[in-house]
Amino acid sequence: MKKDGLIYTVIVSVISAFLFVFLLSLAYGATKGKVEENQRLTEARAYLVAAGIEVSENMDIEVSFNTNFPNFDTDSAYQTTNVNGKSVIVSPFQGNGLWGTITGVIGMTFDLQRIVGFEIVSHVETPGLGGRIDEAWFKTQFKGEYAANGIVVKHGGSGGDTDPDNGQVDGITGASRTSDSVQVIINQQIEKIKSELGGTN
Amino acid sequence: MVPDLNPVVLLFASIFTSNILLANFLGMCSFISISKDMKSSNGLGLAVTVVLTLTAMLNWVLLQYVLIPLDLLYLRYIIFIIVIAATVQILEMVIDRVSPALYMSLGIFLPLITVNCAILGVALFMQIRNYSFLQTVIFAFGSGLGWWLAIVALAAIQKKLVKAPVPAGLKGPGITLITIGFMAMAFIGFSGMLSVQ
Amino acid sequence: MDEDSPVQILKNNIWYSNPIFIQILGICSTLAVTNNLTNTVIMTLGLLFVAAFTNLTVSLLKNLIPRKVRMILQTLIIAFYVIIVDILLRAYLPEISKALGPYVGLIITNCIIMGRAEAFAQSHGPLISAWDGITSGLGYMWVLMLIAFVRELMGFGTVFGITVLPAGFTPWTIMVMAPSAFFLLGTFIWVAKTIILRQEGGK
């Protein structure tokens, strides 16, 4: 068959397209379960972190999640749990970042005076800039922070705000838009929890 | 969830503060080689804007009505790049038939565009950020305009640079990159103009 | 010396015709993540992997591929390997995959891969082509690692996320932002070219 002929060209193109797509679907199928499990674990881990539970490298996240959230209610806007004898309200949030949706989980003390923990589940901010909201130093700033009057994500600071009583955390250098978004999202979420609680009490 | 973004902010951000080229480094290859001359820069800028908007729309439709329903999301890179290559090819043929004048000013730049990362970049961004159709169009159009603006500005600066005494080792790509660096800094200055509501 | 000997290919790709500072190719997809060393390592390793296997595959198939559809089939091969990298990252390094976002997919349009497939693999044997892909990846890697090292050190005072500079150090915000990547790359090209010009002058 002539190598530059139309029939040969079409046959080779079709065969290679099929072959590559077939191999890809095999690879995708083989890893699909793993990817879904990762996603589940990320969410479970976020709930634990938000509730103020130390999550270590080799602990079984699923077991810990089931013991701490035995009555997990997917329809409710928040979950309550007991950590070290204190009631914690844990609530998933989502809101707009600079580029798209930021989702995560936030935990508050029962009197809504302080944040217990804060974890990001997903975001699409610029890697290395706004994407740094997912770094540990940024997220741990929220732990124990006084938030009765909301949170301020400061511009210009860096490395993390260590004072838990000023209601302030350091924003991301070079990503003021994303920092502002996080501030708005958290404060809205705190208000939302307040009104939800007010409704049930 | 489709993000709830102000269209004006999105347009402004994609043209200026988060310029696809100056902040995301996409579309550099053809950028550096073409930016020496004003006329070609304009032609390429226009071509990029047209192709970017067109392919982003096509890719959005394919994504929402074919790839997601059939759970074929992992094939998106292949699909996106084929759509881009095909669009460029068809556009080139159509322009050639319809208007030879337009072909000379726009068509000759089209083959360069298939390998322009900005085009695929926009398609991938709109997918990962879950944009609606309208947001996709605004984002793609803004990114194209931003790229156009950057390449024309660079071409104008390059024209002046010809007469400047540049050290031998810095000539060519070196000074071009440093110039782009200054432009990128200037564009960051726009970021104070907007706030997220 | 033979132009196609493995040692000469290594030397060329690492220095004499380095894809970044001589050919100015393929900086788009990776420059954006160079304010963080970890992300840069993963991105450049991904590129190395894709470049090596694309060259290998293109070289193996070069006698089968009809000329008319050569480009599109090469793109298909590249996209295939990039998707493999993406799938592997998602399954085994979910944190990294989350941080890199769409940038992994952009390896497809990295001109180095297409460039090497077209310029080298089309006319050489499979093993030597794979070697060319690996060394191109290495040549790409060391330059970007250097830039990422400076950006992360000056921007955050850290190396691979570990704080190395004293607490009193004020981070240079500009190093975190996009312009510094252009400045550093420009300066780097300047230094490298000056050295090369001197080497050539000395001959």
Describe this structure in words.
The complex is a heterotrimer of chains A (201), B (197) and C (203). The longest helix of chain A has 45 residues, at 6-50. With 201 residues, chain A is α+β, with helices and mostly antiparallel strands. Chain A is built from four helices and six strands, in the order ααββββαββα. In chain A, a hairpin with a 5-residue loop joins β3 and β4 (115-122). Chain A has one domain (47-196). The model of chain A has no long low-confidence stretch (mean pLDDT 84). In chain A, α1 packs across α2. Chain A is elongated. Chain A has a four-stranded antiparallel β-sheet. A two-stranded parallel sheet of chain A has the order 5-6. With 197 residues, chain B is mostly helical. Chain B is built from nine helices and no strands. In chain B, α3 crosses α4 (76-98) and α4 packs across α7 (117-128). The radius of gyration of chain B is 18 Å and the shape is globular. With 203 residues, chain C is an all-alpha fold. Chain C has one domain (6-148). A two-stranded antiparallel ribbon of chain C has the order 1-2. Chain C is globular. The model of chain C has no long low-confidence stretch (mean pLDDT 86). Chains in contact: A-B, A-C, B-C. Chain A binds chain B through residues 20-21, 24-25, 28, 94, 96-101, 124, 126, 176-177, 180-181, 184, and chain B through 1, 3-5, 13, 17-18, 23-24, 74-75, 78, 125, 128-131, 191, 194-196.
Compact overview of the structure:
The complex is a heterotrimer of chains A (201), B (197) and C (203). By secondary structure, chain A is an alpha+beta fold.
Number of domains of chain B: 1
How much β-strand is present in the residues of chain B?
A: under 5%
Order of helices and strands of chain A: HHEEEEHEEH
Question: Domains counted in the coordinates of chain A: how many?
Answer: 1
- In round numbers, the mean pLDDT of chain A is 84
Quickly list its features.
heterotrimer; B: 197 residues; mainly alpha; 9 helices; globular; C: 203 residues; two-stranded antiparallel sheet; 2 strands
